[in-house]
């Protein structure tokens, strides 16, 4: 669980996060949604420790970051997995070497043990048998699965995903969403996902933070977001082509 309390962040005196309160729950897919520039990435980067907020508290499983010792901060970084927007695989490394990378960085285990762990996670993301392939030899969806395998290889407590299904066709995007959700439940991870994709909201929106101009404008889950009459939220939801069509169909009584 990650609790964010009264979080403020400014750049050159201009506030981009204006007192965010939100609990990212354990064993749930927690989505951050909102228009471009609403502060989603800044919030994520504050939780990753890449930005220092001016005010507010971020607690990891109940403990405020400000009370972490230097060693505990290092340990925390090992407990974080990250799925980047483009996948961010190393082109010159095989699938196996990509997934092994964090193990080599953070553990002192023998090569044989690392290889075994890599095999396990590749099997979990249905990529066994692809160990020796290069990223250029596999599809975009498979590359995303490699980047998920790499993110979970160290058994993280927290998984951060920045638009994990961008650039994928809708069917493959849903496969990736479902995989992230399954892994979240299986390994009891606190998963935080930035997304622009309303399909993802519909599929895996277990706990949603909707940001508008640096403020938490709404929170709820996927069943609530399509029922709310909060105009800020409905404007955003129905700006998606798909849901505009659903709404028009509903209005026509179809
Ligand atoms: N390093 C930075 N220095 C100055 N301003 C920044 C910095 N990072 C973000 N901002 C500003 O903070 C605001 C929020 O940006 P942020 O990247 O969090 O938006 P976002 O909701 O993630 O947008 P998008 O969906 O387009 O990625 C924007 O006005 C942006 O210009």
TrEMBL record:
Pfam families xrefs: ABC_tran
Residues of the ABC transporter domain: 2-238
Keywords on record: ATP-binding, Nucleotide-binding, Transport
GO terms assigned for molecular function: ATP binding; ATP hydrolysis activity
Keyword rRNA processing set for record: no
UniProt-recorded name of the protein: Phospholipid/cholesterol/gamma-HCH transport system ATP-binding protein
């Amino acid at each position: 669980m990650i609790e964010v309390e009264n979080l403020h962040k400014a750049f050159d005196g201009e506030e981009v996060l204006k007192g965010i309160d939100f609990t990212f729950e354990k064993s749930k897919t927690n989505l951050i949604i909102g228009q471009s520039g609403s502060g989603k990435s800044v919030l994520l980067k504050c939780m990753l420790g890449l930005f220092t907020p001016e005010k507010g508290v971020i607690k990891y499983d109940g403990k405020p970051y400000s009370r972490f010792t230097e060693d505990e901060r290092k340990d925390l970084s090992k407990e974080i997995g990250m799925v980047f927007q483009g996948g961010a695989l190393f082109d010159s490394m095989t699938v196996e070497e990509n997934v092994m990378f964090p193990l080599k960085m953070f553990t002192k285990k023998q090569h044989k043990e690392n290889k075994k762990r890599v095999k396990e996670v590749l099997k979990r993301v249905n990529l066994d048998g692809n160990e020796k392939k290069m990223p250029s030899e596999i599809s975009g969806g498979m590359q995303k699965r490699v980047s998920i395998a790499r993110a979970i290889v160290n058994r993280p407590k927290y998984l951060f995903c920045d638009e994990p299904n961008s650039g994928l066709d809708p069917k493959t995007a849903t496969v990736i969403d479902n995989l992230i959700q399954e892994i979240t439940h299986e390994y009891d991870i606190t998963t935080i996902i930035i997304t622009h994709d309303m399909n993802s909201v519909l599929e895996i929106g277990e706990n949603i933070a909707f940001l508008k101009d640096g403020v938490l404008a709404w929170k709820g889950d996927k069943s609530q977001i399509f029922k709310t009459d909060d105009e800020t939220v409905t404007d955003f939801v129905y700006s998606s082509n798909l849901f505009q069509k659903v709404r028009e169909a509903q209005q026509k009584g179809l």
